Amino acid sequence: MSSKFSKEIFFNNFKYIDPVAETIHSNMKMIVSDHIIQNIGSGIKKSENSIEIDLKNQWILPGLINNHCHLSGSGKPLPKFTKHEKFVKFIQKRKIFKKIMYNGMKKSAMTALMSGTTTVRSLGEADLSVFDLRDRINSGEELGARIFTAGKAIALKADHGEVICIEITNVEEAKRAVNYLIDKGADCIKIMATGAVTGAKTLDSAGKAELTPKIIKEICDIAHKHNLRVTAHSEGNEGALNSISGGINSLEHGSNYDENILDQLKEKQIGTIPTLAAGNAYSNHSRKETGLTEIEVLNDHRVIKNIDIGLRNAIKFGGILIGAGDDAGIPLVFHGKIAKEISMLHNEYGLSTIKCIQCATINNAKIMGREDKLGSLDVGKFADFIVFASDRNPLDNIDLLFYPDSVYKEGVKIR
Ligand SMILES: [Zn+2]
Prior knowledge:
This protein is α/β, with parallel strands linked by helices. It contains 12 helices and 16 strands.
């Protein structure tokens, strides 16, 4: 945020739930200036000129990160026209479309922030004005969650004429696409290593490997040269293996990972983001509500079954970097509900509450390659945090994450 408050703020008297050390620090104090944590600990002193904010022994957590969302989707079912590729291509070029998309994304980023999600990773948008929105939020002209964005995803030209993808057919086009996105200002690169549930035209298309290992490697090589990470939409083991051998940094959604895959995820610290809330939303609502076709629903059943197996295997295996992202923006997954994903990791997969918080904070920051600035409250990082009343400890009840009592971004109270 731009509003350069040179004034130092001294946050006094709070309990910090530390996702890195997996412990609680009591009687904490923190000094913030220029959006950044200058000092944190129990023994630090207020300087004469700083403004003091008494946090009254409340619980403090680092701001949550949603590691997978689509800001240009609201969570409402997709309008029917999105199924007509030609019409989508036509409308995407209109100025009015850009304007509607920009305003929609702004609203999504705001909803996320108000809920305590101070950072989101956007993995494919209907319009590239997401870069402007990101910049305006960073400069303080707009208010919203901090955005890291891929702009668009890179996909093999297939039947699923995607609003959020740049479609390619060969290595040369892949190189052009990744360079174009980097040029536009992408923070990361997203590829579609396999087919997806939305847009699936045949029974097995969701998990089917699409981009070849050679194309994936070219994309990763270019991105890595620019210090950008690459994440892969991957809903099948073949796609996962293609991605891993290509040099991918994380896998979105997942599949029924076997020991060979888990070995490599662990060794290379490749993150996996199971997007449980997304599968849950599709399977718990009627087709009328989701707007999905019958084939898409059948694909979804298969995919979530495999993600479930893969995640259970990963937890049992140990040492796998698990992130939290809910695919907000797709039909029936609304922005500002990352708590649902975190709650599912606890209630359905048995991760302890602190481990779940870890997924949505420091693990996500590591997966994004931004742990120097995000994911915990440490010196040099953004002062993004959420607050819970002293009798509302989220470690005792993870569902409290749905309703933080207040939200601070870069040391400024948002609500
Ligand atoms: Zn997605």
